[in-house]
Design a protein that fits this description.
Blueprint lengths: L4 H9 L5 E2 L1 H14 L8 E7 L5 H8 L1 H4 L3 E6 L14 H4 L8 H4 L2 E5 L15 E4 L9 H9 L2 E4 L6 H9 L4 E7 L9 H5 L4 E7 L4 E3 L8 H9 L6 E3 L3 E5 L15 H7 L3 H6 L10 E2 L14 E3 L12 E6 L8 E3 L11 H4 L21 E3 L2 E5 L4
Parallel strand pairs: 2-3, 2-6, 6-7, 12-13
Antiparallel strand pairs: 1-9, 3-4, 4-5, 7-11, 8-11, 9-10, 13-17, 14-17, 15-16
Length: 388
């Protein structure tokens, strides 16, 4: 699994200033258009938690306003004085406007709207954005921005990582379409997983993006390794690479309907590229009637029972192929657990014959009846959808 140190540090320090790159936005949006060219047609798109003067979200949707067929684009910003990082200089776009107010620009949020060709160029694009100051600081929870949310059809943004739970709930309670960036581990949140299980939320088209690069404010402390990785991808300066970032959405895209190509259990036991599958097979959990599958590409195509798989499975999840049963918990309410065989190996055929680990030679239980060396795993349990 990708390193999560940056995201964890960001949450602890409330460093929520991560700026999404244009190429990542374009790649994600294009995948929805490939599946349905009318995904955004006649829609009002709201971009909250933004900095409209230079945001790549605003730039992309404004420049592609006509191609997407948008009805209205709304982008709002959070006031400088309400942010952790207050190093800010207004752009010429703002200072040269008759609306500019040096005091308001630090304590008020701003709203940018795009609906029409204002400059007579014959097309609607970035140059047609109109703006004014908000009454408040632009916090997404304010009545002012909530009213804009209620007017929107689709909400797209990179929200503050530390407020992901609250931000997602803010969208879901209004019943809106969404496309937002978050930490992959948000899958495990009690507020998030039920939505995924019920197919009300899923991962975006580009899934787990191991090389997703974000801009950061000047003088932000960045892990040298992540900074170097960003530089190798062509981003030199105030950038970092966040390996655990991914898109969350409830907008349909074709890649979530592509079934995994899988081998049978017998073929996996013989030919899997994973040594642990070839040697240890598919152990059963001690506290749940399911087998553990340690690698997504080793899911057996012919097994009809419940299987525990890594959370990275959701990047390949096809709802027509599998159904999600539960996250992590066994029958006893505890994490899924199975015996560590200490490399001893065993006959995989036993898996089909008995759930009891006592049928496997060489296992020693401790005084509490738990097998010595047992290991807990964060797993999603799934089962194959059987054809009617």
């Amino acid at each position: 699994m990708a390193n999560n140190s940056n995201l964890g540090a960001a949450k602890a320090a409330k460093n929520d200033e991560f700026y999404t790159q244009y190429a990542d936005i374009q790649k994600e949006i294009n995948a929805y258009l490939e599946y349905n060219p009318d995904t955004f047609r006649d829609k009002t798109v709201l971009l909250p938690c933004d900095d409209p003067e230079w945001s790549n979200f605003t730039r992309f949707f404004a420049q592609n306003f006509e191609r997407l067929g948008l009805k209205r684009l709304i982008s709002t910003s959070f006031a400088v004085e309400s942010k952790k990082y207050k190093d800010y200089e207004p752009t010429l776009f703002e200072t040269e406007s008759p609306l500019f107010d040096a005091d308001k620009t630090r304590i008020k949020g701003k709203i940018f709207e795009l609906t029409r060709d204002t400059n007579g160029s014959g097309r609607i694009d970035l140059d047609d954005l109109e703006w004014h100051y908000l009454e408040g600081d632009g916090d997404f929870r304010s009545p002012e921005v909530c009213a804009l949310r209620d007017q929107a059809d689709t909400i797209v943004t990179n929200p503050p990582f530390s407020l992901f739970r609250e931000f997602l709930a803010w969208i879901v309670e209004a019943g809106k379409q969404l496309l937002i960036i978050g930490n992959m581990n948000a899958i495990t949140y009690k507020e998030v997983f039920p939505l995924i299980k019920e197919n009300r939320l899923w991962l975006g088209a580009t899934g787990f993006v191991s090389d997703m690069v974000f801009g950061v404010p000047k003088n932000t402390e960045v892990d040298p390794k992540d900074k170097a990785k960003a530089a190798r991808l062509g981003y030199v300066g105030d950038f970092t690479r966040l390996g655990n970032s991914c898109w969350f959405t409830n907008i349909d895209h074709g890649r979530r309907h592509e079934p995994l190509k899988l081998m049978t259990m017998a073929d996996n036991l013989k030919f899997s590229r994973h040594k642990d599958i070839r040697e240890k097979g598919y152990p059963k959990y001690d506290n749940y009637d399911a087998i553990d599958v340690s690698h997504v590409d080793a899911i057996p195509s012919d097994y009809n029972g419940v299987m525990g798989v890594p959370i990275t499975f959701l990047g390949k999840y096809c709802p027509e192929q599998f159904e999600i049963v539960e996250f992590r918990k066994g029958d006893d309410g505890k994490d899924l657990i199975y015996s560590n065989l200490n490399g001893g190996g065993y006959n995989p055929a036993l898996l089909q014959n008995s759930r009891s680990s006592t049928s496997i030679p060489g296992i020693i239980k401790n005084a509490e009846g738990r097998i010595n060396g047992s290991i807990t795993y964060a797993r999603i349990t799934i089962r194959k959808r059987l054809k009617n």
